[in-house]
Queue: 2 jobs
Job 1
Amino acid sequence: MSVVAVQNLALGFGERTLFAGLNFELQAGELLAVLGPNGTGKTSLIRIMLGLLAPSAGSVAIEGCPPRERCHRIGYVPQQRVFDRDLPLRGRDLVRLGLDGHRWGFGRIGAEDGTRIDAALSEVGATPYADAPVGLLSGGEQQRLRVAQAIVADPVLILADEPLLSLDLAHQRDVVDLLDARRRSAGTPVVFVTHDVNPVLHTVDRVLYLAPDGWAIGTPDDVLTSETLSDLYRTEVDVLRVRGRVVVVGTPDDQHVHHVDNGH
Amino acid sequence: MFAQLLGEHFVHTALWAGAVVAVVSGVIGVFVVTRGMSFAVHAISELGFTGAAGALVVGIDPVVGVLGGSLLVGLVLGLLSLRGRERDSAIGAVLAFGLGVGVLFLSLYQGYATEATNLLFGSIVGVSDAQLRTLVIVGAIVLAGVAVLYRPLFFSSVDPEIAAARGVPLRVLSVGIFLLLALTTAEAIQVVGVLLVLTLVITPAAAAQHLTRRPAVALLLSVAIALVSTEGGILLSLVKPWPTSFFITSISFSAYLAARGLGWRKERGRVSRRTPSRTESAGAAV
């Protein structure tokens, strides 16, 4: 049974259509990268899957249910965001919010909850700084805690929205490896929004490419070709493979090498 | 003289009233500081003043006016649930107009000028038994509200984006915290006055942030600092007949300065300890 079923999904604002007729399913343990230039609805797709945004047409089902009924079971990893330096919040507290932050009342951490928090911290290698204030941690350390926060409640699905932005290459690899390890060990499917496919290229099963005039889904070898992307962009686009990296040249939105800097 | 005053009933009432207001303000302050709502506190208290001035004009209990004025503004601001600059300018516009109306009410009011002064700067020693009872009831409502909302409120304060993704109802909580803040402000006005509400709602929580990284400890420290400031201020005003509000603000501000000093030293220690092993930490954390 598929974990996620997206059927005939469309999103538009006024006369502008971001995407339409989107169909795909995600199986347990699958890693899907969502690619494409800015403004094509990558983040909106994640928000629809979280139940925070209503689509113009079509539906998303998580384990057969509407997203809002499953949102407590979805792990979400956002872009790295700077915390205030004096925020009274330790890494451990941040992770705990992923476990019971949505429940009413004060709540007490039971022994079982404590074990789960410790396990999540240790799984992402954040144990050494679990008691440090989050505002004083580096971007890479904060993103590890974000992954721990997303997995602590044993989610059925992980949605990651540009989790690598503003991280250096070593930390990008760390975050990708953590999510990759999780989907292999626990079978949790991962949807990974990124403007640069290269950090996840070695592990991704399929890519969904959202372009201004259409979309394509398939294995990287099927989608990331000059032919497919030229069709999507309706212009001459070259996809080059340089030392195992994918470089897209000639898209209308930026004239220089696509993956280096996509306007962020 | 001091010992004699300590035996007086009105002093006991003042100390109890101060304690109630300090506990409630210290608790709410933690959320106010985390959410960056200091300016909203100011607006709500000034509109509480407008409400009180209006109540004086029509001849009802100013406390009712304070509650009405601050709850109305709290509700509106909470429903708007604005963020950042948009919220600041909206609050500024509302605040200015509300204060203008308050000035009109004051000029229409034919009673004693001290009533107005008490509103602006507080009159803790004038708290009656009936007022104390109201303070306790309203305080209990605020604390019960915080107890129910605590976890999702904290979640949405430190991490709104993830909280929304996890199904936390941000708008409901926004309205909730603004209403609780309005009740708290209406309480604090009676102790320190409209102009000095920030000294109980902001300063203790801001000081506590610099002293600990544990959310629960920050809450307790904030309450402790608010309590020491209020009770200390009342006691000092028995020794020297200066305004109670002056002593309260002085103590809470001293606590804030001391906490900043301590926090600054702690942070430096932490960064220099971390730097040798992970060179990126110090720079990237900024």
Job 2
Amino acid sequence: MTSTPRIALMVTCLVDMIRPSVGFASVKLLEDAGCMVEVPEQTCCGQPNYNSGDREGAAVLARRMISALKGYDYVVVPSGSCAATVIKDYPQILADSADEEDAKELASRTHEIVSFLTDVLKVEQVTSAFPAHATYHDSCSGLRSLGVQAQPRKLLNSVDGLNLTEMHEADVCCGFGGTFCVKYPEISNKMVGNKPDRIAETGAELVLAGDLGCLMNMGGKLSREGKPIQARHVVEVLAGDTATPAIGEEQ
Amino acid sequence: MNAILENPKSPAFKQNAKEALANQNIQDAMAMQAKWRQNRSNATESVPEFEDLRDAARDVKNHVLGNLAGYLEAYEAQVIASGGHVHWAETAEDARRIVLEICQSVDAKVVNKGKTMISEECGINDHLAAHGIKPVETDLGEYIIQLRGEMPSHIIAPAVHVTVPEVEADFRKAHTHLPEDRNLDDTATLMAEARQVLREKYFEAQVGITGANMLIAETGQSVIVTNEGNGDLSQSLPKVHIVMASLEKIVPTLEDASTILRVLARSATGQEMSVYTTFSSGPRREVDPDGPEQYHVVLLDNGRTNMLGTEFQEMLRCIRCGACMNHCPVYQSVGGHAYGWVYPGPMGSVLTPSLIGVDQAGHLPNASTFCGRCEAVCPMRIPLPKMMRHWREREFERNLSPTAVRFGLGAWKHIASRPWLYRRVASLSNFGIKLLGWGKQRLSWMPFGSGWTDHRDFPVPPIGGTFQRQWKAHKDRN
């Protein structure tokens, strides 16, 4: 490997369509850490199909993603959920097929972005500023499939002006769950409905997480309840992106 | 037979869930369970080798499942050697018949019961009652739901959905021989009254039925863990003791049983051990001062051996601690009855389709966000989300998934496997949401998106196209 790691940013569909600033913040963080970042043309990792029982459909999309991400030193993803699909699920989806080895090889060089910064690049701190009082929600896949928990807190604590307060049950699912939130909307609503109070109790005006799905869910609930609390992806804060309005906020 | 066993309510899961969400008593009862999670967390953290114990417990059961027939035969031989009987029940109907025959053989009028989920699975109470035999539940929670004519809503806390005022009302209605003006407004007085009423029943019963947390092949013993001591009285006072257990409850040795006991109560209630851990070794011997004259074990299969060798085999490691449901945000939202059959929560979402068919219970493995908290706390390291996904795959293969879902997945596969098409759809979505927003930053309504917007706003993307489009423009500029 060259001294400048060549990175493919796997941007994820939600970031691509709904929140491009997460992609740009990711690029900034990786470049600041000395990486060369490229964005190969890509689509969806196939998680919606895999989690809905459509293993064949998921395999088609996994093969496409594997070929799109060939040849990079690392693949970095601003989502614990999509990263876990590549890292944990692709080798299962393509088990006993001709692509199994390629799936394992891709899995071995794919990382969720914050843990990549801390665990692989050994980033100890960021140099950005983001004046706010925030609380951090642990998104399920990142937390339980990939062990992302201490890493974002460590880097957030190095952000100038950011005050981080832990909320009660930060590790409990917000009820997004991909297609779950539309298949079982009432249960999903009950689950996300637990969050505004937990967040507000901390006194924070900003909730952070590493997955856009959870943020859209919690942010959408906070705004529906009229709570003056904003939602942002953790990389936007780490990159000091104060220019982009928070999710669902005025330009 | 029990109505729910005959006609599972699992197909109506969505409606059941809606009703549970609107039921304040259920919501209040579920909120009380936070302390269980805290207790488990304290209990497991105080044992430095807890993670190793989980591995060891998992390995014990994996070994058993690989050699089940051999251990079952060894167990049967030991039970027979100690003077007991083993009855093989392939189906729930077989189990009902066997239990009834044993009860009738001693002309039983009253049967006392310790807590047993296998009895619930087989509908023993209704079957006995239909034949003129009175079943009396002696576990406090089971007693409460028996009075209410309900199924358990939790595998170790069957009446967790019932509030204290509701129990008071149930007791006043049932215990009419007690003074009307008695005080019954807290758990202590309720417990004392249940104890007083149930004490009398212990001496009326000719048969006692218990479950088994484990069956030990080496010794032929059955093991129960309880906190009330009711199981001990139920099994030692009557003339006949019937153990009802499913066949995967077997462990090879006493040593293995002790490994599992070390993870069981800590995972379940956060206790180091339950208050009573009782080993039954068969009928009374000549030298014994007391104990049952007859000892019967009814070993239930009811579809479990069909799970061996399939992707659901690991479910047979389950020791019924209930940690998965205590930590499941879906169970905690809707309670156990919404699941519509015997076993609720994540373990029920995997086991129920195995036992009654995924065509009946398809909602259960779908009603999960795959948050993974169940697997994280399961003492037997059962990959519950993975197995729920397997059920979704079976559904998909058999065309049981809803048409709209199948169409959506097919369309998404078609789009996302063609980058040019994905690009257009992504741009169109990005643009379309902005158009719907009409200058606003949040949508409170979206076509086909009411599942989302009924409950929360949808964010409008900031100015500019998709990330990939903006990135390309940015690269082209530089």
